[in-house]
């Protein structure tokens, strides 16, 4: 979603009550915190792997330095929303699939912005609800090895498991993440590689992309 698209979105009721600030780089975002009090940071993705990494970095730092600010991610599609929700190291207040119809996008974003700062318990974010769908440590390890170019036999050797077991874990990871190809798994693996081991008139802040 472009900056113009975001401006159009926030000009429509019920989002028109919020004052929108747009940022396209990390430095300008950080500088704004010194003189502006924000209620929410909304990071809009565009299905680019580099942008996902920037989003992870931005939101992780925000959770550490400004934990009182609401954190929302607009994902390009349902698959990206699942990837972010399963693999994100910092707790979010919401993940919204912006490919949904406009009226639905407005309703979901409005519901999140009008909420208190409860994390991960909004009914709109159903990916958080099923804890049994989260990746297991073995599944995460397999994805990390895949990101470095390891083959299934090589991963089996590294994890001291047989090949059939590794393939089964890989299949389970694909089901949980909602992907049906190695490309989708590599997108997830790419995110895992960049995560730390083991982690009046209100103002809405939107970061459409980092360049």
UniProtKB/TrEMBL annotation:
GO terms for biological process: regulation of DNA-templated transcription. GO terms for molecular function: DNA binding. Keywords: DNA-binding. This is DNA-binding transcriptional activator BglJ. SMART domains: HTH_LUXR (SM00421). Gene3D superfamilies: 3.40.50.2300. It comes from the Bacteria. Residues 128-193 form the HTH luxR-type domain.
